[in-house]
């Protein structure tokens, strides 16, 4: 009998705790979001470079208010330039692997309970690894410092980046949304998934 009373007491306490937790999560929606996406148009598209795979993006954000959000951003892309025959007769191609990290400020406007638009700017740091490969063997091309080269060996590996963007989000569930975004960055056009946690 004593064990039954303790079990009932624990079940009651667990039920009350679950009920209180459910009420608190319903009344105060999460202010944290994580988003992941793919870039449909790589930044180097104009140069007719081809992408090894679609650029990837990741964002983690915090709603300062209903209209303003701060988020951290990480993006990665790998593009390969069209092969060319250089002045010395060597056929080669250039591969550029770029990582972009930054802090974004977003302003939001709600159009309905499920749709909102946003826009803003980002300050970030872009780092590129540019390498030349032999067209036939795909081996890394090593050139002497005084030899002509299709890439600048003294070019800075990284630089500060200032960008602007705008996009829209559609809520498909209470904490899950789909977004589309246009702007300069790791990709010109991005689509992805946003989750509130």
Shape: elongated
- The proportion of residues in beta strands is over 45%
What is the number of domains?
A: 2
Biggest sheet, spatial arrangement of strands: 1-2-3-5-6-7-8-9
Could you estimate the helical fraction of the residues in percent? 10-25%
Global mean pLDDT: 81
Reading off the top of the CATH hierarchy, the class of the largest domain is best stated as Mainly Beta
The CATH architecture designation of the largest domain is Beta Barrel
Runs with pLDDT <50, length 5+? 1-28
Largest sheet: 8 strands, antiparallel, barrel
Our measurement of the CA-to-CA distance between the termini, rounded to an integer number of angstroms, reads 42 Å
User: In sequence order, what are the helices and strands, one letter per element?
Assistant: HEEEEEEEEE
Tally of helical segments: 1
Rounded Rg? 25 Å
Structural class category = mainly beta
- DSSP strand tally: 9
CATH structural fold name of the largest domain: Porin
